[in-house]
Amino acid sequence: MDAILLQILNGLDKGSAYALIALGLTLIFGTLGVVNFAHGALFMIGAFCAVTLQRILNLSFETVDETQTDFLGNPLKVKTPYVEAWFGPEFGGSIIDWAVPLAILFAIPVMIGVGYVMERGLIKHFYKRPHADQILVTFGLAIVLQEVIKYFYGANPIQTPAPDALNGVMNLGAIIGMDIIYPVWRVVYFFFAVLIVGGIFSFLQFTTFGMVVRAGMADRETVGLLGINIDRRFTIMFGIAAAVAGLAGVMYTPINSPNYHMGMDFLVLSFVVVVVGGMGSLPGAVLAGFLLGILESFASMNEIKSLIPGIDQIIIYVVAIIILLTRPRGLMGRKGVMED
Predict the structure, then answer these.
(1) Beta partners for 76?
(2) Quick one: pLDDT at residue 55?
(3) Any stretches that span the bilayer, and where are they (predicted)?
(4) Which of 30, 63, 70, 206 sits a CA distance of 20 to 30 A from 123?
(5) Of 96, 105, 103, 107, which Cα lies nearest the Cα of 163?
(6) pLDDT computed for residue 175 by the predictor
(7) Helices 184-206 and 208-218: crossing angle, nearest 10°?
């Protein structure tokens, strides 16, 4: 039972990343009708926002410490971060330690800006083009962004640790008399994903802006005839979707060290999640993300892999085939979406 619960936790952890990326993908497809293959690159850019802030906070200057000497007796040069010099060693050190959570504040405007430029500068010209054209141009954009990141940050993964207070483990099973040791940050990531998903659904459900967007998703022409600038609202939604992907990347950095190809690693799986959940269905994307994350986690167990070697690499695609054969629109797909 301990092992089963542990695999469920692992699945929820990985499913959180799938759900957040798929949610952003579905927001873009549902509002603009664009199949955005550059969405994984937005996840990657968000992760490197955390890397960038960490480097900024660690900028330092050298001072000579007369109390310390090297083996030749010369005074040592000590590097002191500017943040510690400005705010004191204790508070400044805490700021550096909490670089990843603080990167959320840094990433939100950056990702909204990136999304706005991407939509206004390129994607708007492909609204009425076939989905194949959209896939090709956004996939090309993803490769360009990937190579830009590689040029500036290098090809090697970059360690981006969680705050010390959240970098340990906790016994999640103590409440129910079981021994389930699990990393604290992974639990934080799951609750962060739930918070973001709940926030997006609440925004769309309970705000006037969100209700207009949902109406535009259902009947764009009618909303436009009412004198509402639905295109501007959809552009804002593209920025919000980019921010969701970016925040998912920021918080994932302590789990998986950022590298230039991490966007592509998640992109294909996230599109499978979107298709399984149902194209254009926000609840379907979230449900499929967590479901496939749990299935992938169970398939990675040694007992399962000994029975079916390599099943952990293909389980998501096998499940996708089965679901699409039985429910061609996905779990919660809407009629008429991509069926022309």
Answers:
(1) 65
(2) 93
(3) 15-35, 42-61, 95-114, 189-213, 233-254, 266-295, 307-325
(4) 206
(5) 96
(6) 66
(7) 80
Q: Report domain extents, the chain.
A: 2-326
- The H-assigned helical ranges of 122-229 are 131-153, 184-206, 208-218, 220-225
Question: Could you give the CA distance from residue 255 to residue 238 in angstroms, rounded to a whole number?
Answer: 26
CATH code of domain 2-326: 1.10.3470
Gap between the Cα atoms of 148 and 261, Å rounded: 11
Token representation of residue 247: 């925040």
**Amino acid letter, 207:** T
Q: Report whether 316 contacts 49 (CB < 8 A).
A: no
Other beta carbons within 10 Å of 194? 15
Instruction: Summarize pLDDT for 223-280 with one digit per residue, the tens.
Output: 878 788 888 888 888 899 999 999 999 999 999 899 988 888 888 888 888 888 887 7
- Predicted local distance difference test score (pLDDT) of residue 144: 92
Q: Provide the pLDDT confidence category of residue 174 given band limits of 50, 70 and 90.
A: low
Q: Which residues, 6 or more positions from 122, have their beta carbon under 8 angstroms from its beta carbon? A: 137, 141
List the structure tokens of 107.
């990433």
Amino acid at 294: I
